[in-house]
Amino acid sequence: MPSPRFCTQCGSATLERRRPAGDDHHRLVCAGCGHIHYENPKIITGCIIEQDGRYLLCQRAIKPRIGTWTLPAGFMENGETTEEAALREVREEAGVVAEITCPYSIFSVPAISEVYLIFRAKLLHDIGYFGSETLARRFFAPEDIPWEQIYYPAIRQILERYIAERETGSYGIYMGSDDTGKVHFIR
């Protein structure tokens, strides 16, 4: 998201990036009134929905990378809990009503200031239609997943890990980052 050009407090166009007194980060600060404009990471929430050993994926109808596949997930809105956001995204993108069973993964992508919160969920019922951000939605057996067409590396890593765990029947909650390449198992 581009930085604001005008101060939201006084309307001044004199925004500058500097370190406010007592702060350890450079921030966007209004030279006119001193208001600090905090720029925070985006939160993406979504669900892994499995049915009969197959996984629900959505084909993107929007930029970037139209036609690629992903888990039903998207940006959290103000005023939502993470669970409400994940279930809304599942409904909008996949056209299904789901119920969250447990959290599954917290994955940070610092280079683009995003945090992914992915839940395990079960399908309750199919609405019969999906939103305009989706070209198609489909349940894939693991061997049929179009791995090279999964757009987000974080989503691919999360889904690969989940499928490997399903084979063992032991699930954990994962925390990780694409920066370090480390994923920590928490029981």
Automatic annotation (TrEMBL):
Residues 40-162 form the Nudix hydrolase domain. It comes from the Bacteria. Its cofactor is Mg(2+). CDD domains: NUDIX_Hydrolase. The keyword Hydrolase applies. PROSITE patterns: NUDIX (PS51462), NUDIX_BOX (PS00893). This is NUDIX hydrolase.
